[in-house]
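Good morning C.,

I know you're traveling, so I'll keep this short. The sequence:
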Amino acid sequence: MSNPIWQALEDRVRRRPADPVVTYIDADGQRTELSAKTLANNAAKAANALRDEAFVEAGSRLALHVPWHWQRSVWTLAAWLTGATVVPGGLPDQCDLVIAGPTEAPGVLSGQFGPTGQGEVWVVSVHPFGLPNPSLPEGCLDAATIARIQP
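The tokens, ready to paste straight into the viewer:
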């Protein structure tokens, strides 16, 4: 892939795959680290999900309503891998897909962040291991479940 950030990550995977590249510490002090290999794997699966399930491609726009969490890194990198533009806090009606955290999704659906538009809303997990969301707002899809089945 020609993305310079992806190339840097691939280089890191070749040189030091187990070293952390993303460290997230939640409000309770729980620490989650993603190694270069884990970040690359998660981003590749998420990119495949975006491309194959939501038909995201170069020129697509993704509204990102994800809290400061390790998932934000994964889904931003995944969008860039597809050639899409990431719009942090983007207006849902001006984007092809909305990626939201579980606490942000209801606001997206209610119009808190602007007109809702016709695109899907995928909800990312904020579980330390990225497990599927136990409950989703009506009309949302679970990003963890969609990405997990990707090659």
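Safe travels,
E.
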